[in-house]
Amino acid sequence: MEKSSYELVKMAARSGRRGGSFHGGYHKRNSGKGEGSHQKILRREPKVDENSPIVASFRTYQSLMDRKNDKFERLVKISRDVTIQSKRAIFHIHRINSGVDKTTVLGEADEKLIAVREKLCQIALELQGEDLYQYIRAFSPGLQEYIEAVSFHHYCLGKGLVSLTQVQTDLEFPATEKPTTEDGECPSHPAVTLYVPPIEYMLGIADFTGELMRLCITSVSSGDMDLPFQLCQFMREVYHGFSSFSHAGSWELSRKMHTLRQSLHKVENACYTLQVRGLEIPKHMLADVFSSQDSEDTGERRNDMS
After folding, report:
1. Cα-only R_g, the chain
2. For the stretch 235-245, what's the b/e string if a residue is b when 16 or more beta carbons lie within 10 angstroms of its beta carbon?
3. In the predicted model, is pLDDT for residue 244 greater than 60?
């Protein structure tokens, strides 16, 4: 029986799939041959002439950058320690309104500040022979926190505002001959000085006014009704001095000027409450009134920022 043309075409298609005589099988056989026929291209790394002056220059730059980055990281770590210890000194000074002897508290705070200077001595040793402004961002937070603590301690001693000259004098370290300790606490070293840029001094003083605002609130709770008015007058003088530098071009100074203005506003509100409503509100409730006002102001600022 003769097969139809349709069946013949169908049989040819099947045989092509099996034996590779049809287009699909032909492509498979040739694709295998093509892979074997092409040779792999091996990429050879270019040879570097180590004696080339250009290569030698880049090796020098590499070592310089590595040394600078390592020094930067060391300064960041020391600055963190300075910040932590300075905050501890500030918190300790705030105990003068808790019924503890003021002289004892300030004496213990002075010992803490001496320990902070030991850390700052390490920063001065790291910066020997270096450009200070290349590393200023590494230790600037710690230096500002130290200036804040020193200013707060100096004011509580009854000596007013600490000057830049006084801060700079405390950071002049004479030559010493100490054995090297395991914790690296400033071993024997030549005479070194940690230079304090004026802008860092101003930023530290701006932070210091925030501690005066907290001192004002706590003094009311302890029954001292005269200290808020003294703090208000002092902060007004500081703000008046900062107003001359409001257009100095430093964004950080402008930001802290805004915080200084808010702190002064809180102290003025506290003085207003004491002067106008002091006869109406019992003394033991005045601190709660100030705390509630502080919470309301904080909530309003958050709403404005959002």
Report:
1. 36
2. beebbeebeee
3. yes
Backbone angle region of 185, left / alpha / beta, with phi > 0 → left and psi within -120 to 50 → alpha: beta
Percent of the chain surpassing pLDDT 70: 71
Q: Average pLDDT in the 230-234 region?
A: 94
**CATH classification at residue 285:** 1.20.58.200
Is 89 within the bounds of a domain?
Answer: yes
Residue 236 sits in the same domain as residue 130: no
68-75 mean pLDDT = 95
In a domain, 261, yes or no: yes
Of 1-10, 159-168, 250-259, which one has max mean pLDDT? 159-168
Whether 64 is in a domain gets the answer no
Is residue 35 part of an annotated ligand binding site?
no
Q: Indicate if 187 and 282 belong to the same structural domain.
A: no
Model confidence at 4: pLDDT above 90: no
Domain count along the chain:
2
Both 228 and 165 in one domain: the answer is no
Q: And the tokens for 87?
A: 């905050």
**211 is annotated as contributing to ligand binding:** yes
Residues 228 and 173 both lie in one domain: no
Query: Does the pLDDT value for residue 8 go beyond 70?
Result: no
What does the pLDDT look like over 269-281, one tens digit per residue?
A: 888 888 887 666 6
HSE-CB of 279 using CA atoms within 13 angstroms: 2
CATH classification at residue 182: 1.20.58.190
Instruction: Give the Å distances, CA to CA, from 7 to 2, 4, 10, 12, 131.
Output: 10, 5, 5, 9, 92
Range of the domain at 157: 69-194
Q: Please, which pLDDT band fits residue 304 given cuts at 50, 70 and 90? A: very low
Residue type for position 251: W
Closest to 118 in 3D by CA, of 206, 202, 181: 181
